[in-house]
């Protein structure tokens, strides 16, 4: 993986011979960084990109320097606007927590993707708790790599795919380069991004660092936040064979959460807040060290060690929004995450009968530890994250451990200049364990304790398995390719499924891991960088799918809640289509002095339950699987001026397997269809830039999420119309 900004369909012409992509990628030195070649903000990963093989896989490369979007607020609608099939949750104003899912999978904290930064894991626990509380500031990114389910062979057990944030590096031509960006926006938003980078010591040491601060009062009452992110990276090239790279990330934020709403409350006033005592705090620390050794032009090795030491704290009232907050003790959930891992990869090029071949093999060792405590916080209103009874909290105290070891191999067999076959295999060993206790406390109507029982629990689950996949690619001509792939997938039960105390959700203690496969077939091409398309069909088969069904509690409460268990198998099929054309270049050719790009991004998903244990959900729609998602946009560029108008439409979809349309507490029900438009403009002259953006241009009242816990419970309204102005300076 890396920051190669060339699309998959580039070719290199030498004399009369055209080296197509299959051969071009064999020439490792063709990878060019810091290229000035302009894209439309979207491309595809080369068949070999860094230490990754992506031949015949569905992939997208988002090139941030060419993307016209609101980068200061991490606006996911705009950033992922050209990636088909992506469903987005909007839970906060400035993209503090990215929530994206693909092909009918839940966007919840991007947990169905293997989420990475510079090629290493950044979620709380890649297997046991794959939720991402940290999202890099987009202003610091070079690119975002998106690979679908076929990436499981190289990146581990998941169905959604791999998402990798590629951070910027220092300027390779100057010893020092400075960037400063200041943003003001609606609802008291202020953001500052400042970076420094360059190459020194006879061009052996490349360095880069940034500091980013954001704060806002929020559109709704009780929704203020402050976030700080610091990052530094060093790359030292000892000689032509050996290099070392290290980086460190520190992020912390404090956010007040206004809580969720019922359907009636949302219709009455989506801006209202019924919770003023809910808070969320995150402290994230990441570090990595990578050694790259190039034995020769055909063989190179990467060994990357990475570590995470982080904490997230949530405090507030977890009862449904139709239950008044009377000022009782709040619920405090304290999660501490500590893990370390190493991924070592060996990439080799060789020939069979004169045809260049490539093989990638690697190992992964990962050890994680999660401490999760849930108990009573005080009855105040401020962000006091202190347990009242730390020795024995009122709800639960668990230690979860996870050991993962894996080996994989993939080989590109190039039969000729047009055909390639890429088989792969992965062997996994997973050992998850938990030890701790949970309490059940029963009270009478006066609030007096009538029963207090502690249940001590110790579990250990060891499993090992092998899964495989294969991809086929046919280059119709130098710019057009047909591809197909099939990959087995596996997803482990996560720690949250083992034990949590929440009045809105209950968990089946006998839940088991999920397994299945994903498959793609498509055709894609990029003609001379002014006509770009990728049209594909997919099949995602899920066995023993973990999901949520709606149940009613026993007397006297009769409160609806979600029950999380292996509810059924599911079958997700669909079509993903992306097409973009530079209208002026199609008309005037190379004589065109400006660019007018029109793009369509459409996804149709049919996701249903089959082989259901509860026959009442047989043939029901899978929750969070929107049947249609479409984004249409137009961009114009002339010299230093650029603008983009984009419209997003998402069809109505359900939030639980019973397909309930509405319940009293707002936690379950339909997410109605919605449309939202965004406008961004920028002007650059010399070292100065100015950017203006408007999110939710038509001021739609809509929501993308019903939360069963924080930041709800209930409906989480999306922000109303907002404006942002960014001033930039580069030295």
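Q: What amino acid sequence fits the structure above?
A:
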């Amino acid at each position: 993986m890396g920051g190669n900004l060339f699309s998959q369909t580039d070719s290199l012409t030498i004399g009369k011979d055209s080296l197509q992509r299959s051969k071009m990628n064999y020439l490792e030195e063709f990878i060019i960084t810091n290229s000035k070649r302009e894209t439309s903000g979207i491309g595809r990963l080369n068949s070999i990109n860094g230490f990754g093989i992506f031949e015949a896989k569905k992939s997208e490369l988002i090139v941030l320097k060419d993307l016209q979007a609101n980068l200061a607020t991490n606006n996911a609608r705009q950033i992922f606007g050209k990636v088909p099939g992506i469903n987005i949750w909007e839970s906060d104003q400035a993209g503090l927590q990215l929530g994206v899912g693909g092909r009918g999978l839940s966007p919840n904290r991007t947990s169905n993707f293997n989420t990475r930064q510079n090629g290493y894991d950044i979620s709380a626990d890649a297997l046991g708790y794959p939720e991402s509380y940290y999202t890099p500031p987009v202003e610091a990114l070079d690119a975002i790599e998106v690979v679908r389910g076929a990436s499981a062979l190289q990146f581990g057990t998941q169905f959604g795919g791999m998402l990798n944030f590629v951070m910027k590096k220092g300027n390779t031509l100057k010893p020092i380069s400075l960037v400063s960006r200041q943003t003001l926006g609606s609802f008291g938003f202020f953001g500052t991004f400042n970076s420094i980078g360059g190459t020194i010591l006879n061009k052996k040491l490349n360095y880069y660092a940034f500091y980013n601060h954001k704060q806002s009062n929020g559109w709704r009452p009780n929704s203020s936040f402050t976030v700080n992110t610091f990052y530094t990276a060093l790359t030292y090239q000892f000689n032509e064979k050996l290099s070392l790279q290290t980086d460190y990330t520190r992020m912390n934020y404090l956010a007040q959460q206004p809580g969720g709403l019922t359907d009636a409350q949302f219709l009455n006033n989506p801006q209202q807040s019924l919770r003023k005592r809910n808070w969320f705090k995150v402290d994230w620390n990441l570090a990595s060290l990578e050694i790259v050794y190039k034995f020769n032009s055909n063989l190179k090795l990467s060994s990357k060690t990475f570590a995470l030491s982080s904490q997230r704290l949530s405090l507030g009232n977890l009862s449904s929004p139709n239950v008044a907050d009377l000022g009782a003790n709040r619920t405090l959930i304290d999660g501490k995450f500590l893990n370390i891992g190493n991924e070592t990869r060996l990439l080799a090029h060789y020939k069979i009968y004169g045809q260049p071949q490539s093989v990638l093999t690697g190992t992964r060792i990962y050890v994680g530890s999660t401490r999760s405590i849930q108990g009573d916080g005080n009855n105040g209103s401020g962000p006091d994250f202190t347990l009242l009874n730390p020795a024995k909290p009122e709800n639960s105290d668990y230690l979860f451990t996870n050991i993962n070891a894996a080996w994989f191999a993939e080989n590109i067999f190039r039969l000729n200049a047009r055909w390639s076959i890429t088989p792969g295999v992965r062997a996994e060993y997973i050992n998850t364990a938990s030890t701790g206790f949970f309490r059940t406390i029963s009270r009478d109507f006066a609030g007096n304790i009538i029963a207090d029982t502690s249940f001590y629990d110790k579990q250990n689950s060891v499993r090992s398995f092998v899964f495989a996949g294969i991809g086929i690619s046919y280059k119709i001509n130098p710019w057009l390719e047909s591809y197909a792939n099939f990959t087995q997938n596996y997803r482990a039960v996560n720690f949250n499924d083992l034990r949590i105390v929440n009045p809105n959700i209950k968990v089946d203690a006998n839940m088991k891991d999920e397994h299945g496969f994903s498959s793609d077939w498509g055709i894609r091409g990029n003609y001379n960088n002014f006509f770009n398309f990728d049209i594909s069909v997919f099949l995602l088969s899920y066995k023993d799918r973990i999901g949520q069904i709606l149940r009613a509690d026993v007397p006297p409460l009769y409160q609806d809640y979600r029950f999380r268990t292996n509810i059924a198998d599911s079958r997700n099929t669909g079509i993903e289509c992306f097409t973009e054309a530079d209208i002026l270049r199609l008309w005037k050719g190379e004589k065109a002095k400006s660019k007018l790009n029109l793009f369509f991004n459409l996804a149709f998903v049919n996701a249903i339950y089959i082989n259901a244990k509860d026959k009442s959900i047989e043939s029901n729609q899978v929750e969070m699987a929107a049947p249609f998602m479409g984004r249409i946009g137009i961009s114009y560029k002339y010299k230093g001026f650029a603008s983009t108008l984009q419209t997003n439409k998402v069809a109505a979809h359900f939030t639980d397997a019973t397909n309930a349309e509405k319940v009293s507490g707002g936690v379950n029900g339909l997410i109605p269809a919605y449309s939202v438009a965004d406008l961004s403009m920028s002007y650059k002259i010399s070292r100065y830039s100015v950017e203006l953006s408007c999110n939710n241009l038509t001021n739609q009242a809509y929501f993308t999420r019903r939360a069963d816990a924080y930041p709800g419970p209930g409906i989480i309204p999306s922000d109303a119309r907002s404006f942002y102005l960014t001033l930039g300076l580069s030295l």
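Q: And what stands out in the fold?
A: The chain has one domain: 12-730.
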